[in-house]
Amino acid sequence: MLKVVGLGPGDPELVTIKAARVLERADVVFIPKSTKSEASLARRVLAPFVRGEVVELEFSMGASSAEEARKNAEIISKTPGERAYAVLGDPSLYSTFARLRPYLEEPVEYVPGVSAILSCSLRAGRELAVGDQAIAIVPATRADLLARAAELFNVVVVVKANKNVELINTLMSGRGVAVRRCYLEGEAVGGAVAWDDYFTTVYIWR
Question: 80 by DSSP, 3-state: which?
Answer without folding.
Answer: coil
